[in-house]
Amino acid sequence: MVLELQRRFQGTPFSNRLKVIQGDVLKCDLPYFDICVANIPYQISSPLTFKLLSHRPMFRCAVIMFQREFAMRLVAQPGDTLYCRLGVNTQLLARVSHLLKVGKNNFRPPPKVDSSVVRIEPRKPQPSVNFKEWDGLVRICFNRKNKTLGSIFRQKSVLSILEKNYKTLLALQFSQKGSSENKEMALNVSALGDTGEDLSMEIDDDEMEVEDVETRGSEFKDKVLEVLKQGGFEEKRSSKLTEADFMHLLSLFNKAGIHFS
Ligand SMILES: C[S@@+](CC[C@H](N)C(=O)[O-])C[C@H]1O[C@@H](n2cnc3c(N)ncnc32)[C@H](O)[C@@H]1O
């Protein structure tokens, strides 16, 4: 591929404008770019997407071919079957649009999967949200995206993580008493690298019984459920929540001192 590119550009007016960087795109430092056009190996779709989105200065536009299902997840809207953590996180940072379908029969030999070309345009400015917090909430919500939030946040495992975070932060605040605590919430997009890794781990609610429901009453559980009630979220399901809903829910939790990272 590299040799072929060099051969094609050689002797043309563009030859001194071509610079080929040969290496693992996930490991190398990317230079400044404003446009990215790529036909990628599909197994690096998620880490590459978030590597591009964490690159600064932000690029203008990327046009990338993905496996069809990955592409449909990227662009899925609330209520769509493929609406998921990957789409919510990507759409938080970028406008994503499906450009065209590329059927497997366009290739020789035909691969097993169909493809789609997607346009990704980073939002400018980027949203002012702490990404670890955001992703922590979205990850919990989409682990059981068709369950109500009331039932998700009654799970022992979820409550135990949140209570641990809550106590750690309380202890930290106590030890830092007097120092001004209101730190800027920086967008930490690099934490997104693993966003796609558990795509296939979303649990099908209809097939799996949730066993770890916290049945005991506790002050902390009441606090969590009170936040859900306050925002009218208890009976809602992640599969239908918009970005604004997630933002609102996160701000209510944070106001109550409940954090996801
Ligand atoms: C789908 S092919 C596309 C080839 C060519 N760009 C084209 O459009 O015909 C993906 C290419 O990416 C290369 N590749 C695989 N993993 C890579 C990585 N981590 N970094 C850079 N290139 C990689 C593969 O060797 C393969 O040549």
UniProtKB/TrEMBL annotation:
Supply one GO molecular-function term.
rRNA (adenine-N6,N6-)-dimethyltransferase activity
Q: Which UniProt keywords apply?
A: Methyltransferase, RNA-binding, rRNA processing, S-adenosyl-L-methionine, Transferase
Family annotation (Gene3D superfamilies): 1.10.8.480, Vaccinia Virus protein VP39 (3.40.50.150)
Question: Would you tell me the Gene Ontology cellular component terms?
Answer: nucleolus
Q: What protein family is recorded?
A: Belongs to the class I-like SAM-binding methyltransferase superfamily. rRNA adenine N(6)-methyltransferase family.
Name of the protein described by the UniProt record:
rRNA adenine N(6)-methyltransferase
InterPro entries for this protein: KsgA/Erm, rRNA_Ade_methylase_Trfase_N, rRNA_adenine_dimethylase, SAM-dependent_MTases_sf
Query: Could you tell me which PROSITE patterns the record lists for this protein?
Result: SAM_RNA_A_N6_MT
Which NCBIfam families has this protein been placed in?
Answer: ksgA
Sites binding S-adenosyl-L-methionine sit at 1, 24, 39
The enzyme's E.C. designation: 2.1.1.-
The chain positions of domain Ribosomal RNA adenine methylase transferase N-terminal read: 1-124
Residue ranges annotated as transmembrane are none
